[in-house]
Amino acid sequence: MHIAVVNFRLKNMTQEQYNAACDELAPAFAAAPGLVSKVWLSDPSGNTYGGVYTWRDRSAFEAFTRSDLAKGVMTHPNFTDVVVKDFAVLEGPTRLTRGMR
Question: How many CB atoms are located within 10 Å of the residue 89 CB?
Answer without folding.
Answer: 17
